[in-house]
Structure prediction request, 813 residues.
Amino acid sequence: MSNRERGDNFDASDQSQGKVVNPPLHEDFSDIDKMASGFALKEIILDESGQPIDFRFLQVNAAFETITGLKRSDVVGRTMRELMPNARGLWIDRYGEVALTGLPTRFDEYSPELARHLSVAAYRHAPNQVAVIFDDVTERLRSRERLEEREHLFSTLFETANDAIFMMQGGQFIDCNERTLEMFGCTREQIVGASPWEFSPEYQPDGRPSKDAAIDKITSAIKGVRTQFEWTHKRYDGTEFSAEVSLTQLHKPGDDVIMAIVRDVTERKIAEDKIRESEERFRNLFENAPIGYQSLDARGNFIEVNEAWCHTLGYEVDEVIGRNFSEFLEEDFGEVFRQRFPKFKKVGQVLGAEFVMKHKNGSKILVSFNGRIGTHPDGSFKQTHCVLHDITEQRRAEKERDELLEDLEAKNAELERFTYTVSHDLKSPLITIQGFVGLLADDVRANNNEKVDKDIKRISNAAEKMKTLLDELLKLSRIGRQVNPSEDIHLAELARDAGELVAGRITSAGIKLKISPSMPTVYGDRPRLLEVFQNLIDNSAKYIGDVELPTIEVATRIDAAEVVCFIEDNGVGIPSEYHERVFSLFEKLDQQSDGTGVGLALVKRIIEQHGGRIWIENPTPDKGCRFCFTLPDVRPARGEKEHTDEGRTVDYPSDRG
Amino acid sequence: MKGEPLTILLIEDNADHAELVLRGFRDHRVANTIFHVTDGEAALDYLYQRGDYSDPTTCPRPHVVLLDLRLPKVDGLEVLQKVKSDDSLKRIPVVILSTSEAERDVAMAYDFHANSYLVKPVDFVKFTQLMDDLGFYWLSWNTQLADREFSTRDIT
Prediction:
């Protein structure tokens, strides 16, 4: 148990008067219980040598009880050693000294026994009696410690902060931290006493003079409004930097000391600018790119499309957003999309997926998609990012190119064949001529007149053959180069005219030529079509062979809405393995015939020139031959509809030519 | 000279050319027998001894075939291919006698194992010379396979 005594200043005079007054013990301290401080009167016990070894409590007050937690009845009359045998000798020494010297004392001490900080004053009340007055200062000490800690904390913060922190009064810097000096590139002397606008450019980026703006801000801070704003500052060397400033009034309203915290945001500004620029660039790219872009959500509904997309498909952005992608697809592709979309979302990438889309005007557009998916931070699907290319034109061009190439290859092959055949077929009679001219010379020398005549005949035939061949080649070469103006052609009339041209052969062979009167009227190149009919009738007449009642029939029929002209005979026919070959140039089935092998090639060429096809059918398995051909590029006669024998209306395909 | 008569099958669609060949051989007394057909189909019929040519006594196997390339019905190259891919016929030497000098024709003919490729000369003297040399070569210099199948009969 411990106790603390304290002596107050006035006790000193007390002490000086101690011996004079020497009041009776109890009466002197009759009202000590009224005192808030603890009080104890102690009798110092000395040993033989006069050294203090203990003290006895003579009197304590109520506050003593409160502070020490000891009862007055337990204490009074007992000594310190009795009460607390293990207590430190410190108290006995201190009070003993007061008793011996008569000098009052005052000290603060921590009492481990009470776990309290005590502030003590003691004076000598009477010989060997010491009065002690003490207070518990534990709480006061603790709050001071806390205060010191905080002060330390704040000063550390202040000095080590990465922001410039400074105080201003009356529009001038009065104090600042180290960082301020660093940030403004100056010494303390250069900044203290200066005004914030001296460390700013003349004007802020918004055009306001820095001084006006600063005064405004400071004024409102002084009024107690916490202000935060962006500010361009100027370092001591004149360079500028962007800052974020916050002004706080430090004390109570009306006090003109304010604290400013300035943060250099140059780096952040630069980063922000970069992000903004980059964002702008991408936005620009997205809006103005010539490539269509679209973004779909998980259900395949449009989230975003760009200008190029809208341009390609003829829609406005508002007409697209929120609608499903499949609504813009050709029917068949809607299903394709529904099947492929989940896979795309899973795989995360699509390359060259082709869809036929519908333009607002109804036209079909072939597009190719490339894209990726965007994901949420957790990796789940968020939206698609796809670019589309309109490849309609590209495809068309590719197709056209392929067709042209194919055409060219065919033409080349044909040309090669042509040169080959021509050289062969012209050389052949030449060999004959030369050969028989040689033999002729022999025969003349041998006076073999019979052979001479034969030789001459062969030579002349060969020469004739060359001439015919050259004529026909010329004719062939004219097809495609010479185009006659189209006109209405009554096919029946045309067939009759063709029949007239080959009447000689027909009549001499006793052939009956039947021409159907119900053939349609067409609109086309008459001289060319006349050649077709003439050649085919002539060909039939030439090879009809030895049959009973030889007949050639010219008529038309309808095959799958297509008009098919045919020239049919009841002759010996052509075996089906030769059906293709007969149309080749210089191809003759019968070498003994007087043809050149050009006629049917010529017919085929003309038909193909008109976009048609030509083929041979066998009307019966064992005899007869039917040459059939179509003329899709020949338009029906203008404004006319022809009737067949059965009274059916014949409709010609009208989407061509 | 072996003195054995040579049988030649001439496959030629051009009557004038055939006449030139035949007269060339005749004038030089090259061959005892020349059979002439005018298209590929007939040529194969002859070689396989079928149809009109089924009698081996009147239509013996030739020692040499003279083949024109451009033929009606069955093309000359087709005839060549058939002959050379048939074990019973492939030993018969086939000499192409064509108007064509086209590289492609020559190459194809050799690809199909033609034994020789001759281009008909336009010049009469050369033509005559060729027939002379041709006959002499096959009659005198060329070694025949003398088996029963090759026995010939003069039917002229």
